[in-house]
Fold this sequence. Notes:
The chain is an alpha+beta fold. Helices cover 52% and strands 13% of the residues.
Amino acid sequence: xxxxxxxxxxxxxxxxxxxxxxxxxxxxxxxxxxxxxxxxxxxxxxxxxxxxxxxxxxxxxxxxxxxxxxxxxxxxxxxxxxxxxxxxxxxxxxxxxxxxxxxxxxxxxxxxxxxxxxxxxxxxxxxxxxxxxxxxxxxxxxxxx
Length: 145
């Protein structure tokens, strides 16, 4: 008896290429849905924060996909702590080591003690419990104007 067979198979039956097309179509649809969701979130960020004219912040938000949702979740708490009329600027400078951190800065026109108190309340009431989600890439701060 000859144990050699000219046709050998692993026992796995792979689909023909034409059968894989619906799978790829589904992935393409999912990617399009993800892209639309990302753009919608970035649009909401633009409504609630002032972004610089350059692309540094948008590039940062694209590279750190959890940060835009954190920014949106922070809006009600920021308004509660700092006031509904306070403007928040986003900036993502490069530090001396070449890293970027996103800063969400309240543009404060009042007394410095008042803004420190507002930031402490925001940290205590909301941010401290969620800061780990940002993995050190997001800082809430203020600028006196």
